[in-house]
Write a structure and sequence with these properties.
There is one protein chain. By secondary structure, this protein is of the alpha/beta class. It has twelve helices and 18 strands. An eight-stranded mixed β-sheet has the order 1-8-7-2-6-3-5-4, sandwiched between helices. Helix 1 crosses helix 2 and helix 2 runs parallel beside helix 8.
Length: about 425
């Protein structure tokens, strides 16, 4: 069976027909220049977004990520943090120049490639995108396509010189072709400067996007966000649209006052057992570092125990703290993911930091990874955990809670004097 081939500069003109009726698109380098393939993947995602549909581009080259190089504002967190460590998709997605397009990188380095590719959340995520008629573009190595627990509506093979009479080299692509699955090839235009063409495509896409935005006269939503529905509930994310029943913990707002909102932490490690995590937590606290542990689901039967350091106001302060921890040798220079974790559990409030510190030390002796945050009036809050969203906090009981100590365990927005 022959394969339809398109030149990269032709994408803006064919995008409407190419993506119509398709929500899950796998883009894979089939042969040739990997740098060209990276740029081509971005061009494909931007062409999809220029049609007016919300689009997410996800890098699944777990061992050798490359898409972040061309991202507008790449984050330290990514799809590994979302699928293995329970991070919210909203917190790992960064916007492109076109507000219809968001990018999700690999994030935390991981040896669990197959666990990411085979994760059950792909099914829920794809259903959400289908429901909202958004486009999910995954950039995945051809040898890993068969491990993805997701059947693409379209596979786009990136081959600078096309397939010609030889056909695809990848066994998966050959199998897809034999089975009649939707497959097209994007190649270089013949005898033309590729770099100039790529720049031209991007410029054209951005112009089209601007026209679309002016015509709509409204702010485009994130590809992870959901538009209002005429149903009883109006979920705020694709993930929420199919897991709303899991959100059972209320967020108790902290009264406003002259305090910092301590939204950021640094994830320094993730352990398979609470004992390993607690030992790491003790090492950090012994070094004078504010630390805590958060348990997040790894899959239906396993849990990750994430170790966090610090409680600071913003991303810049978290980056400064990480640099200091690197310089001190407290954490390795390849570790330390900046994490937006504005929620925590409030266990108790003490009238002063001295009594608060004694309480924290007592809790640590019983195996509770508590920490203390000072308030402007001299009082001290005893906290545990650092979470991106309420649903992340649901596994906190697995970190050895002691119900008999009168702990309040109220989920709050973390505020106080930055440390």
């Amino acid at each position: 069976m022959s394969v339809q081939e398109y030149a990269l500069p032709d994408l803006p003109g064919i995008a409407e027909s190419l993506f119509t009726g398709r929500c899950v698109v796998a883009v894979t380098p089939a042969a040739g220049d990997s740098e060209w393939a990276t740029k081509a993947a971005w061009s494909i995602a931007r062409a999809a977004a220029a049609t007016g549909r919300r689009t997410a581009l996800i890098d699944l080259h777990i061992d050798d990520p490359s898409l972040h190089v061309h991202a507008n504002n790449p984050l330290d967190t990514g799809i590994v943090d979302a699928f293995l460590f329970g991070a919210s998709l909203q917190h790992v997605a960064s916007p492109d120049e076109n507000p219809n397009l968001h990018f999700i990188g690999v994030g935390t380095p991981s040896a669990e490639t197959e666990e990411v590719l085979a994760n059950k959340r792909w099914h829920r995520l794809s259903r959400g995108f289908q429901k909202e008629e958004a486009v999910l573009v995954v950039f995945v190595p051809s040898e890993e396509l068969g491990k993805l627990s997701l059947e693409p509506d379209l596979t786009i093979a990136l081959s600078p010189n096309g397939f010609g009479a030889v056909g695809p080299r990848s066994p998966y692509l050959r199998s897809a072709l034999d089975r009649g699955l939707p497959l097209v090839v994007v190649r270089n235009p013949p005898d033309e400067n590729v770099a100039e063409k790529i720049v031209g495509v991007v410029a054209t896409v951005l112009v089209v996007a601007s026209v679309l935005l002016l015509g709509q006269r409204q702010t485009a939503q994130s590809p992870i966000e959901i538009a209002s529905e005429p149903a009883e509930r109006s979920p705020s994310t694709v993930e929420d649209s199919i897991s709303q029943d899991e959100r059972v913990l209320p967020v108790v707002p902290t009264p406003s006052g002259p305090v910092d909102t301590l939204a950021y932490s640094i994830q320094v490690a993730a352990w398979a057992s609470p004992e390993q995590a607690f030992e790491h937590y003790r090492e950090l606290t012994s070094a004078g570092v504010l630390a805590t542990i958060s348990a997040v689901p790894r899959d239906s039967t396993r849990v990750w125990y994430r170790v966090f350091a610090g409680a600071v106001a913003d991303r810049a302060a978290a980056a400064d703290l990480r640099a200091r921890l690197w310089a001190q040798g407290t954490i390795g220079s390849v570790r330390g993911v900046l994490a937006n974790t504005p929620l925590t559990y409030l266990l108790a409030t003490h009238p002063d930091t001295v009594s608060g510190q004694r309480a924290v030390e007592g809790l640590r002796e019983t195996g509770i990874p508590a920490y203390i945050v000072s308030m402007p009036d001299g009082s001290a809050q005893i906290l545990v955990g650092a979470f991106e969203s309420p649903d992340q906090a649901e596994l906190a009981d697995s970190v050895r809670w002691d119900a008999g100590r009168g702990l309040s365990k109220v989920l709050v927005t973390r505020v106080g004097i930055a440390r």
